[in-house]
Design brief:
Length: about 400
């Protein structure tokens, strides 16, 4: 990427910034208006400039986020005449005050103009060395409302309106709305280079948008067919999306081109296993173990294939071998317990399940309802022990 390239900021990060700026605005408003500390009026105006001013090059954080989520909280304005309901953008653009200049011309100000200009004059955003004539003349006026200068009054009015709308906007956001809006924003991102498409695909997949991820990875592969990373990402996402034949085909080509690609072989084996091709999956696990013979997880996965092919003894041997290398893996003990149950070796099955419980695997792995454990669960003595093991957490994990 060039030195002038710009990185896009994602919605969750911008929402956290919004929360921070609203919190600071509330704090500054209390100090300025409740505690009557005039030093903070410029800080209030600066936050308003940041949140709701779209003049010049400024991007109003609150208004843009409400646009991104399609949530536009309104304000009800009561007063002379009929009650009005306006959006925050409409409110800050409303006429605030008009002032006749020495040359007789009328100078008009919107609410947001007053906040923006005041923040620049008082250093809340930055310090201008000159002040627009029409604003300088307004500052010299003695006009006031409720004992406060009209500028202070307008800054105060806008501040409390922004806090009201901003907090109601945040309250309506759910994690799913944030996810969907983030996906929509990322999907609109323009890409040219294969790396950009790949990055976009990764972001979409992390948000659960597998369809969008697949589209991006295909574009990346189209532009750089030699990239193992882009092709592997496409294969993995196709598998996650349940498009197993396509995924298996991609990984098959990857390992044909690069026989030493361990990661590709493992993914290929998993895809074949999910396609119920346990012969093919076992073959790929065998090839991986030729390269990394002490990989406990691959030894276990190979054992699962053997069990699926009816070789219970071979599966048990594989699970024992996996445990010998990695004795703290509850998944291997669970697999061993399952094959012992299928073999009718109920004491050995329960002993392995006790190890699963001791290692904390009971939270994700439970034999209750698992058909592989029908033998042990239906046995009065052993079934009672299994229920005791998996009906409650270990004593050490109980809170006092």
């Amino acid at each position: 990427m060039g030195e002038n390239a710009v990185a896009s900021r994602e919605l969750p990060e911008l929402l956290e910034l919004l929360k921070t700026h609203l919190r600071l605005l509330a704090d500054y408003a209390k100090k300025a208006f409740d505690d009557r500390n005039s030093d903070y009026i410029g800080e209030v105006a600066a936050k308003l400039r940041l949140l709701v001013s779209d003049e010049g090059s400024n991007t109003p954080l609150l208004l843009k986020l409400m646009d991104a989520f399609g949530i536009h909280e309104t304000l009800t304005l009561a007063g002379p005449g009929p009650t009005r309901i306006v959006t925050l953008r409409e409110f800050v653009k409303m006429h605030a005050v008009a002032n006749r200049l020495p040359d007789g011309q009328m100078a008009e100000f919107t609410k947001v103009e007053i906040a923006k200009t005041f923040s620049e004059k008082n250093g809340g955003a930055h310090v201008d060395w000159t002040v627009p004539e029409k604003f300088g003349h307004l500052l010299q006026m003695g006009a006031s409302l409720g004992g406060a200068h009209i500028i202070v009054w307008e800054v105060r009015t806008v501040a409390y309106a922004v806090l009201d709308v901003g907090n109601r906007f945040l309250a309506k956001l759910t994690p799913e709305k944030v996810r969907q809006a983030t996906i929509k924003r990322i999907r609109k991102r323009s890409c040219q280079e294969p790396a950009q498409f790949n990055e976009k695909g990764v972001l979409l997949c992390n948000l659960g948008d597998l369809t969008g991820g697949i589209t991006c990875f295909r574009e990346a592969v189209k532009r750089d067919a030699a990239s193992m990373i882009y092709r592997a990402n496409l294969g993995l996402t196709l598998r996650r999306a349940g498009r197993l034949p396509e995924s298996a085909d991609i990984y098959c080509r990857l390992v044909e081109e690069n026989p030493g690609n361990v990661s590709g072989r493992l993914q290929y084996a998993v895809a074949l296993g999910e396609l119920k091709d346990f012969v093919g999956a076992k073959e790929q696990f065998d090839r991986v173990l030729e390269i990394t013979p002490d990989d406990a997880d691959t030894i276990r996965d190979r054992g699962v294939c053997l069990v699926q092919l009816g070789d219970l003894s071979g599966g048990a041997e594989a699970f024992d071998a996996s445990i010998a290398i990695k004795p703290d893996n509850p998944a291997a003990y669970y697999s061993l317990a399952a094959v012992r149950s299928l073999q009718g070796m109920l004491p050995e099955c329960v002993a392995a399940l006790e190890r699963v419980k001791a290692l904390g695997g009971w939270k994700q792995l439970t034999p209750i309802g698992d058909p592989d454990f029908a033998n042990v669960c239906s046995h009065p003595e052993f079934g009672k022990r299994v229920e005791e093991l998996f009906a409650s957490p270990p004593r050490d994990n109980l809170s006092s």
